[in-house]
Specification:
Elements (H helix, E strand, L loop, with lengths): L1 H6 L1 H4 L1 H28 L7 E3 L6 E3 L43 E8 L9 E2 L5 E5 L3 E5 L5 E6 L9 E2 L5 E5 L3 E5 L6 E6 L9 E2 L5 E5 L2 E5 L5 E6 L10 E2 L5 E4 L4 E5 L5 E6 L9 E2 L5 E4 L4 E5 L5 E6 L9 E2 L4 E6 L5 E6 L5 E6 L15 E2 L5 E4 L4 E5 L5 E6 L9 E2 L5 E4 L4 E7 L18 E2 L27 E2 L26
Parallel strand pairs: 1-11, 2-15
Antiparallel strand pairs: 3-34, 3-35, 4-5, 5-6, 6-7, 8-9, 9-10, 10-11, 12-13, 13-14, 14-15, 16-17, 17-18, 18-19, 20-21, 21-22, 22-23, 23-36, 24-25, 25-26, 26-27, 28-29, 29-30, 30-31, 32-33, 33-34
Length: 507
């Protein structure tokens, strides 16, 4: 009897069945939780066509190369900034012809439900499109009233792009890139990618759409068919492609390289820095390519992939630079000396800097890409919960408090209203303060879905900084490197002379 009981304990101990049922229930619950997590990470079946790279060719960095050819004399595409695209369009200039407010007043703010790191973009009818970390792309009216909300199935970090017909394309961490209808946000098509689609898309003159996901640059047509992929050396890309006048793409990579990619997907050249590149390249007015890196330098590169100059700025440069109105480039810097700096476009010499009193941490500072308006004023957000406006010479114009860090790059509407997302999940509209000129762009009143500004602006009290904005102490000025070494330059680099091959050499 005891032997039987030992072999079959549940036959004589009813409590064992209960324990077994509890154990089975726990396993079922665990499997259900795993399934729920998987379904949350993977896009659900959506309306519209779904494509993959399929048989499209994949070109490898360093292996599949385009025939060598000098491109130094190419014309530079006209600077026609658009609020429908990241950083104003294919060149990523970060400039706008519109003029922002001379003093600040919050017109409205609209809560979208998740952290906003992406730059807003606008359609022709004034609709504002904002990707957010609530796994959605939001359409917001010009007055701040929420419109449709399109499911992206995971966080979206980077800006969307409004196409000529009004449709919107955007990527997300769901390993997918979407085309959404302008009228209701319905999915027209999506491309399944091999990795998070975390770079803002760009569109070429022929309608080809370029975006990054995982280690790849994708080229897709208007129907979502993949034409080709370029595979970088590293594991993933965060940069947005800049597009030159001949269709060449420039892209930064976490593997420390800038890649030049021909329109057919093959590599023209690669330029190596000494740190990760999260920022997007910018094409200057003379064709020079500017890019920041975690090696704490801003690099100026020729169209043939050769170093023109590089300037040490004492912190990571993770946002794209902006082209100023005074033949300068404006860069946002992380700690240990968080600030915004102006460098001469010709040789990288420091013009001015504006310090931001945040932290000495190398992971904190200014992540918001600076915006330069039609008069040369500079706008950006920082990790101190403020949006800043500076004069063309780097003096403080005004500041406006938000509810959290500002990682999003701002844009300006034609009426002078500044739009910027915030880590608190709100989209902010900042217009002309009451002490400004009557004809300054003050924007529309708050809409039904917006929260109007009932609080006074914080512009009258700036965070304390240790130094004036436009003074450059000699012992703290970033070093302007000669191409051959890392010592501070004693002479102005010769712009038209070849650089040494051992510094940032192109392949």
């Amino acid at each position: 009897m005891w032997a039987v009981a030992w072999a079959r304990p549940n036959a004589y101990e009813p409590g064992v069945d209960k324990r077994r049922l509890i154990l089975v229930a726990m396993w079922v619950a665990a499997l259900a939780a795993i399934a729920a997590i998987y379904l949350n990470l993977e896009p659900e079946p959506l309306e519209g066509a779904s494509t993959t790279a399929g048989d499209a060719p994949t070109y490898l960095a360093g292996e599949d190369t385009a025939p060598p050819a000098s491109r130094a004399s190419l014309p530079v595409a006209e600077d026609t900034p658009r609020v429908s695209a990241y950083r104003g369009g294919g060149r990523h200039t970060g400039r706008t012809p519109f003029v922002g407010p001379s003093s600040a007043r919050r017109l409205w703010r609209t809560e979208l439900g998740g952290r906003i790191t992406a730059q807003p973009v606008m359609g022709a009818d004034g609709t504002i499109y904002v990707p957010a970390h609530d796994h959605a792309l939001h359409a917001v009216s010009p007055e701040g009233e929420p419109g449709w909300r399109a499911q992206l199935h995971q966080r979206a970090w980077a800006a969307a792009l409004v196409l000529d017909d009004g449709d919107v394309v955007v990527g997300s961490d769901a390993d997918a890139f979407f085309r959404l209808r302008a009228d209701d946000g319905a999915v027209a098509w999506r491309v399944r990618t091999e990795g998070d689609a975390d770079g803002a898309p760009a569109v070429a003159a022929d309608g080809t759409i370029y975006f990054t996901a995982g280690p790849h640059v994708y080229a897709v047509d208007g129907d979502g068919e993949v034409q080709w992929r370029f595979q970088a050396r590293g594991p993933f890309l965060l940069s947005s492609p800049a597009i030159d006048s001949d269709g060449t793409l420039y892209i930064g990579s976490i593997d420390d390289h800038v890649y030049a990619i021909a329109p057919d997907g093959r590599m023209r050249w690669e330029y190596e820095t000494e740190g990760d590149i999260s920022s997007s390249p910018v094409i200057g007015d003379d064709g020079t390519i500017f890019v920041g890196s975690d090696d704490q330098h801003v690099h100026a590169i020729t169209r043939d992939g050769e170093l023109r100059w590089r300037t040490h700025v004492d912190g990571y440069v993770r946002a794209p630079v902006a082209l100023g109105r005074n033949d300068d480039v404006v860069a946002a810097i992380y700690g240990p000396q968080p600030r915004v700096v102006s460098l001469a476009a010709r040789d990288g010499a420091l013009r001015w800097y504006f310090p931001v009193a945040v932290s000495e941490s190398p992971e904190i500072g200014v992540a918001s890409g600076p915006l330069v308006d039609g008069e040369g004023n500079v706008y950006f957000g920082a990790h101190d919960d403020f949006v800043y406006a500076l004069t063309p010479d780097g003096d403080l114009r005004w500041i406006e408090r938000t509810g959290a860090d500002v990682d999003s790059a701002p844009i300006l509407r034609e009426d002078g209203v500044l739009l910027v997302g915030c880590d608190d999940g709100f989209l902010y509209a900042i217009g002309q303060g009451e002490d400004g000129p009557d004809d300054a762009g003050a924007g529309a009143d708050a809409g039904v879905g917006a929260e109007p500004a009932e609080e006074a602006s914080a512009a009258s009290e700036a965070p304390a900084t240790d130094q004036p904005a436009n003074e450059v102490p000699a012992n703290e000025a970033p070093a302007n490197d000669v191409p051959a070494n890392d010592e501070p330059a004693t002479e102005e680099p010769a712009v038209d002379e070849p650089v040494e091959a051992d510094e940032g050499a192109a392949e």
